[in-house]
Amino acid sequence: QEVETSGRFPLVVSTWPFLEAVRAAWRAVDGGFSAVDAVVEGCSTCEVLRCDGTVGPGGSPDENGETTIDALVMDGATMEVGAVAAMRYVKDGIRAARLVMQHTEHTMLVGEQASIFAISMGLAGPTNLSSTESLEKWMKWKKNDCQPNFRKHVLPLDSCGPYHPKGTVD
Amino acid sequence: IDNHDTISMAVIDKMGHIAVGTSTNGATFKIPGRVGDGPIAGSSSYADNEVGACGATGDGDIMMRFLPCYQVVESMRLGMEPELAAKDAISRIARKYPNFVGAVFAINKQGLHAGACHGWTFQYSVRSPEMDDVEVFTVLPWNF
Question: B18-24 and B45-48 as β-strands: parallel, antiparallel, unpaired?
Answer without folding.
Answer: unpaired
